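ESCALATION

Customer reports they have been waiting on this structure for their group meeting. Please prioritize. Original submission:
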Amino acid sequence: MNKQNFDLKSNLTKNEQKVLKHIILKERVSDINIADNMKISQQAVNQIRTKLEDLGFIKGYSPIIDFEKVGINVIILMGIKLRHSVWKEKKEWEVEKSIKDIPFVYQAYRVVG
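Update from on-call: job pushed to the front of the queue and completed.
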C-alpha cells in the first residue's frame, strides 16, 4: 500500500484527515510543521490533534528504541503456554503484570487459541 494514498473512512473533516495522515506518516511531526504544510494555524492543528486523541483515533505516540544503544544486543521472541488452571486462578491483567515485571521483558501479548 502506498503510504501517501490511503483513504480514511470516517466522519472526519478534510483537515482532520490531513492532520491524521501527517501523524501516521511521521508520528513525531510537530504541530508547527503540519500547520506550515497545510497553511493553517498551529492552534488549529493542536485543536485537531487533541480532538483526534479524545476520539481515540490516536492512542499514543510510540518510541522506536535502538536496543543496541541501550545495551541490549539480543532480542528473543518466545511463546509461553499457560495451563488452564492459571487463567482460573488469576485475572488476565494479573498474568500480564507478572510477565511484564520480569526484567528486560519489553512487551507481552496474549494470543488466544
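Sent to customer with the following note: Residues 42-54 form the longest helix (13 residues).
Escalation resolved.
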